[in-house]
């Protein structure tokens, strides 16, 4: 009797599409989940500041739920509101500290591992299903987005759960299965539009199901209509989505772009985005192993006519990527994120087709280990010193080094100004520098995106800023959308750049504006037979003005004329030598106001080359000496012959301009080294 009952139970499980699992695969799945938890929680405390998307999510989440829905509905290219509403309650309870906010995504990323296992069990034996779950647990891309304060991990989870519930409902047909499927589809659609890609995949798979599961196909269509009705209020409310539709067709989708994306997409999917995978061959090797397994799995699925739903999901994600490119969206690896669980299951198909005992054979064991451990090794730098964002470093540098108006000096020039060139920087700025109004003035370029900033807006705002401020701090970020034509960069060439530092979240620059305090060095100097200089101006010592202060930029202007066409790009090197022999130096390419370098100049053209040299606040006081040299690309200096400021130059490698008197700052200023030690410095 007991034997008969066990046979009946086994037959029932077989009919339900769920072969009886053994204990060992469950232990393996538990180990894989533990691995996923470890990878997603490792160094989460040291991941750094928010990036642009994360800080936008935090700022949306600060509002009440109804206000969140209203704001999201009006924003173009925005996501549905459910994640922001959930983040509102999460941050209300736990605060807005970066690690705590990111922890909201971790459970979604961890739950995706057993969800992938459950979906894989619809097609594979237990151990190959554990392998698929292991690929998801170790996936650098899934780990990355499971630690980000965005909705992408949750969308991947709901999309995978929807596929599993669809497959289970089509096989079992129980009312509760259909109910759970409908609930998952609706919740996923309100989390992120990419979760709805699973529904598209289900529809693509229906023709292969209609013959043998006609009744259940009709039930699904009814469920689908009900889900569409539940999502319809948001579709009608979201004006931002409607306003985004005119962008369709503005993108350029050619074979060159397709080849470029394909060349990096397979690495992104299997070895992680370029931001997290290290150099070397480890990433290519891991991606090659998983890629070959996936291709073999696709072939096996086609031959055996199984896993049509997984193939449809991969095809849907690729089609979604094409649609985004047609909307003129730049390629981002996260667009392929929803396909990774399906690809992981397809990669496990070859292991399903071979007997389990063969898994212990050395070649097969090496493939399995490489597929699971390879991506983790390829992205090992991500678990070591990677930082997600560093906007706090940008704002702290400005906060500590910005100057107020100096009494008795710079009449008509007020305190430092900050120009935020790039969309959404206002959220970033207010989040990491809430007290900025007491320190600096802020100008936005543009005020809103879209549309992109115009040349008129740039010139009007920045001319006013230059008239009212002696120094402009400029933060450049997201200029592909804010200023694709480079109006800001062209205007800035008319000023004196004292600093330029690249951070993860943007480029921080400092420009000196037109203050009439320069010392003239007139005359005539020929640089080989290529260029002629008749005037150099610099922030030198003047008897009618007080000395300069440290923690500021020393300006240089060179009036130069091309004597003949040249085939190289000239470089300038300016430097100051302190009384103790310390050198502060800077190199830059000679380029005109429209960013043309000397290889593009015509004979007779006269240009002004402007730059500034930063002297840190902790620099020693005293009388410095100023120099300038003109270099070829191989660092060989051009020989200067002539007379400048009553000084003869019979054939020298550099020009001495004169003294510069430096005093300590008249206002308290922090040590730059101390600021960088506390918060980290620029990437370069």
What's the gist of this structure?
With about 675 residues, this protein is of the alpha+beta class.
Question: How does this structure look, described?
Answer:
This protein has 684 residues and is an alpha+beta fold. It is built from 25 helices and 16 strands. The protein has a 6-stranded antiparallel beta sheet with strand order 12-9-7-6-14-15, with no helix packed on it. Strand 6 (519-527) and strand 7 (531-538) form a beta hairpin. Helix 3 crosses helix 21, helix 7 packs parallel to helix 10 (152-172) and helix 20 (391-401) runs antiparallel to helix 25 (672-679). Residues 1-17 have low confidence and may be disordered.
Structure keywords:
684 residues; alpha+beta; 6-stranded antiparallel β-sheet; 5-stranded mixed β-sheet; elongated; disordered N terminus
Estimated radius of gyration? 31 Å
Unreliable spans are 1-17
Going by helix content, strand content and strand pairing, the class is alpha+beta
What does the overall shape look like?
elongated
Mean pLDDT: 87
Strand element count: 16
Largest sheet data: 6 strands, antiparallel
Query: Can you list the strand order of the major beta sheet?
Result: 12-9-7-6-14-15
Question: Considering DSSP H and I runs of 4 or more, what fraction of the residues is helical?
Answer: 40-55%
Classify the beta-strand content into a percent band. 15-25%
Total of helices: 25
Ends apart, CA distance between termini:
76 Å
Question: What's the layout of helices and strands?
Answer:
Elements (H helix, E strand, L loop, with lengths): L1 H14 L7 H19 L10 H10 L3 H10 L7 H13 L3 H5 L3 H15 L5 H13 L1 H6 L6 H21 L2 H17 L5 H13 L4 H24 L1 H6 L10 H17 L10 H23 L3 H19 L13 H14 L8 H17 L12 H11 L15 E5 L3 H8 L8 E5 L9 H14 L2 E6 L2 H4 L4 H6 L3 E8 L2 E7 L6 E9 L3 E8 L9 E2 L2 E11 L8 E7 L5 E7 L16 E10 L6 E10 L8 E5 L2 E6 L2 E9 L8 H8 L5
Helix pairs in contact: 2-7, 2-8, 3-5, 3-21, 7-8, 7-10, 7-18, 8-18, 8-19, 10-11, 10-12, 11-13, 12-17, 15-16, 16-18, 16-19, 17-18, 20-25
């Amino acid at each position: 009797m007991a034997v008969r009952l066990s046979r009946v139970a086994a037959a029932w499980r077989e009919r339900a599409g769920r072969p009886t699992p053994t204990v060992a695969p469950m232990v393996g799945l538990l180990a894989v989940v533990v691995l996923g938890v470890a990878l997603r929680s490792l160094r989460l405390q040291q991941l750094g500041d928010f990036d642009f998307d994360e800080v936008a999510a935090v700022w949306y989440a600060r509002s009440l739920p109804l206000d969140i829905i209203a704001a999201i509905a009006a924003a173009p290219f925005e996501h549905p509101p459910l994640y922001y509403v959930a983040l509102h309650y999460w941050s209300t309870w736990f605060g807005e500290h970066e690690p705590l906010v990111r922890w909201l995504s971790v459970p979604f990323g961890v739950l995706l591992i057993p969800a992938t296992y459950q979906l894989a069990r619809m097609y594979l034996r237990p151990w190959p299903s554990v392998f698929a779950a292991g690929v998801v647990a170790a996936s650098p891309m899934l780990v990355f987005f499971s630690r980000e304060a965005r909705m992408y991990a949750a969308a991947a989870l709901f999309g995978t759960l929807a596929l599993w519930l669809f497959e289970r409902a089509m096989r079992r047909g129980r009312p509760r299965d259909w109910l759970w499927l409908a609930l998952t589809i609706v919740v996923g659609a309100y989390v992120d539009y990419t979760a709805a890609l699973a529904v598209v995949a289900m529809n693509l798979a229906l023709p292969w199901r209609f013959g043998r599961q006609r009744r259940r196909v009709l039930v699904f269509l009814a469920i689908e209509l009900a889900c569409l009705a539940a999502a319809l209020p948001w579709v009608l409310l979201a004006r931002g989505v409607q306003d985004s539709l005119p962008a369709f067709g503005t993108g350029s989708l050619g074979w060159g772009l397709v080849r470029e994306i394909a060349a990096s997409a397979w690495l992104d999917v299997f070895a992680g985005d370029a931001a997290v995978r290290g150099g070397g061959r480890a990433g290519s090797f891991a991606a090659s192993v998983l890629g070959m397994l996936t291709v073999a799995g696709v072939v096996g699925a086609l031959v055996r006519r199984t896993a049509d739903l997984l193939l449809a999901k991969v095809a849907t994600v690729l089609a979604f990527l094409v649609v985004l490119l047609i909307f003129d969206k730049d390629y981002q690896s996260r667009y392929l994120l929803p396909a990774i669980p399906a690809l992981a299951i397809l990669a496990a198909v070859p292991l399903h087709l071979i007997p389990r005992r063969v898994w212990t054979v050395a070649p097969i064991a090496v493939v399995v280990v490489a597929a699971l451990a390879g991506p983790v090794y390829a992205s090992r730098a991500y678990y070591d010193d990677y930082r997600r964002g560093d906007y706090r470093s940008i704002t702290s540098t400005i906060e500590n080094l910005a100057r107020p108006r100096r009494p008795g000096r710079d009449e008509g020039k007020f305190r430092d100004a900050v120009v935020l060139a790039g969309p959404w920087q206002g959220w970033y700025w207010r989040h990491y520098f809430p007290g900025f109004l007491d320190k600096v003035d802020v100008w936005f370029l543009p005020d809103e995106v879209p549309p992109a900033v115009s040349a008129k807006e740039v010139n009007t705002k920045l001319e006013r800023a230059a008239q009212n401020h002696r120094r402009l701090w400029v933060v450049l970020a997201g200029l592909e959308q804010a200023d694709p034509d480079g109006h800001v960069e062209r205007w800035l060439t008319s000023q004196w750049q004292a600093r330029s530092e690249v951070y993860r979240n943007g480029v921080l620059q400092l420009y000196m504006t037109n203050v009439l305090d320069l010392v003239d060095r007139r005359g005539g100097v020929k640089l080989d037979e290529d260029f002629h200089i008749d005037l150099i101006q610099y922030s030198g010592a003047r008897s009618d003005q007080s000395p300069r202060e440290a923690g500021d930029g020393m300006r240089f202007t060179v009036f130069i004329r091309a004597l003949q066409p040249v085939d190289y790009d000239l470089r300038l090197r300016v430097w100051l030598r302190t009384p103790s022999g310390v050198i502060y130096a800077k190199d830059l390419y000679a380029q005109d106001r429209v960013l043309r370098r000397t290889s593009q100049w015509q004979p007779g053209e006269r240009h002004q080359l402007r730059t500034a040299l930063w002297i840190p606040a902790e620099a020693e006081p005293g009388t410095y000496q100023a120099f300038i040299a003109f270099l070829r690309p191989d660092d060989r200096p051009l020989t200067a012959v002539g007379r400048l400021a009553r000084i003869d130059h019979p054939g020298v490698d550099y020009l001495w301009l004169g003294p510069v008197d430096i005093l300590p700052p008249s206002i308290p200023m922090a040590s730059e080294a101390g600021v960088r030690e506390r918060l980290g410095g620029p990437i370069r």
